[in-house]
Amino acid sequence: MSNTLSNSAILTALTEALGDDVVSPRERLLERRNADWSGMPGATPLALLRPRSTEQVAQALAICNRFRQPVVVQGGLTGLAGGACTAANEIALSLERMMAIEEVDAISSTITVQTGVTLEAVQQAASEAGLMFPLDLGARGSCTIGGNLATNAGGNRVIRYGMARDQVLGLEAVLADGSVIGGLHKMVKNNTGYDLRNLMIGSEGTLGIITRAVLRLRPRAGALATAWCGLPDYAAVTRLLGEAQRHLSTGVSAFEVMWPSFVDYMLGNVHGLRAPLDTPHPFYVLMESAGGDEASHQQAFEDFLAAMLEAGVIANASIAQSQSDAGAFWRIRDATAEFPILMPDLIAFDVSFAIADIGRAAQQCDEALRATWPGSTVLTYGHLGDGNLHLIVQVAGADDSTVNAVEALVYGIVREYGGSVSAEHGIGSKKRDVLGHTRAPAELAAMRAIKAALDPHGILNPGKVLPSIS
């Protein structure tokens, strides 16, 4: 059967089962974005499916599996690893219509959702119920819960609340053959054999499509204390983190570290930002602590910072006296959302190291990059409390060989320190060939065995996550 006849047959079968309201062929997709924010290429797919229910997702996958038709699931297309980019021979399956918030259970502290819902909508629904959904990242208004779970997203508050997988009690997913697995359980304790829930989370659409989830909600903090600190060296940064975790009764809910390269670039290029401190420093920390009573928590927070200032750990600090002040601090850190406009040809890294190694590893990367490509832009920042470092590199006139060389340099340093090539953005197609820097051959073999068992025809997100076998 020719490709043309095969394509016609698969589209006919899908349209007959789901209707032309769900199935949009290629000619109706020419204006649609087919790639995420990773910079990886994306072609207009054979068709786009926009199901409204788990049942329709199951029907679609059963048909695609029968025809051996590759399928790429898409959420908000905000990923940074190429996991949602499509090729011309693939079918895209978007969950954009599956955005219902089905239930908010304040007694169980859970929210049940379809996974096409945006992160921000879940946060708002939780807030209206007097609770909080702690997962948070800059793309909150566009990214979807399905994408967050599929990539096991991290974000700003991992240090206190954990990664995306730590927010999930139950989920429902559709396997490649159309089978529906999982359950929408609300129990924290559910020790019943193999954990299929966590197998799906972080699998980037290569093992199944997550369609619904029960998410954990947390008590909303009665107080939120925030400060922007200037510090003299990396040793002071790690000491501040340790002292805060020991002496603040609730620890820290965010601990964002920024090198001067990042702060200076943002203040100089993003309109409306202002410097929190009137003097420059070798390191900056945006620290947040959530507590109960507003007055007592704020006073304890200020007393702690005063002690750190007296001890020389902090050189200077600006303490937020209002939500507006805190918002102004966070806007500097969240200005990374402007990167696609400010630096469309950037080379971005999302890596992790042991906290003790981050200072040396970051300095080694910075010095090696600037020495190899003089005049390049190198910005460094990260979620220090969980070991996550972000590097943004821009080399004027960079071609593919330059990009490859930059990546080889940085990932080589990651391997040298025993770090991870992906802290929170996933592997996708962008990092699959360096996954072996972090995972042992036996681990890769186990991953391939799981893939073969759940998707024997390899239709789900082909070419993503697992490196090819040479």
Structure description:
The protein has 470 residues and is α+β, with helices and mostly antiparallel strands. Helix content is 34%, strand content 20%. It has helices at 3-18, 54-66, 119-128, 145-150, 158-161, 196-200, 234-247, 260-269, 294-310, 323-334, 339-342, 355-372, 400-416, 441-454; strands at residues 23-25, 47-49, 71-74, 91-94, 101-105, 110-114, 131-132, 168-174, 180-183, 209-216, 218-219, 223-231, 254-258, 283-291, 316-319, 347-352, 377-383, 388-394. A seven-stranded antiparallel beta sheet has the order 15-12-14-13-17-18-16, sandwiched between helices. A five-stranded antiparallel beta sheet has the order 5-6-10-8-9. α1 (3-18) packs antiparallel against α2. The protein is globular. It comes from Paraburkholderia acidisoli. GO terms for molecular function: FAD binding; oxidoreductase activity. This is FAD-binding protein. Belongs to the FAD-binding oxidoreductase/transferase type 4 family.
